[in-house]
Amino acid sequence: MFTTNEGSFDRAFRVIVGLGLLALFFLYPQASWRYWTLIGIVPLLTGLVGWCPLYSVFGLSTCPTKR
Questions:
Q1: Can you give the residue range of the structural domain that contains 51?
Q2: Are 56 and 4 in contact (CB under 8 A)?
């Protein structure tokens, strides 16, 4: 059902960005924009799982192809 459609660089980048955004949530507890950083959950989860729903919708893949 869910085939991997993210390459290793793409996955690592998503995890780093997701963790960075979530870190901002905890570093700035009084900021009015802090809840926007919770969007970091999306790249973190897609990076950990290796499957991006938007890539599937548009038929994209950053995985190296095996021939």
A1: 8-58
A2: no
What six digits make up the tokens of 6? 């993210």
Residue 15 contacts residue 44 (beta carbons within 8 Å): yes
DSSP string, 17-60: HHHHHHHHHHH-TT-TTGGGGGGGHHHHHHHHHT--HHHHHHT-
Residue-wise pLDDT tens digits, 16-57: 999 999 999 999 999 999 999 999 999 999 999 999 999 999
In a domain, 43, yes or no: yes
R_g of the chain computed on alpha carbons: 14
pTM above 0.85, yes or no: yes
Total count of domains within the chain: 1
Residue 28 lies in a domain: yes
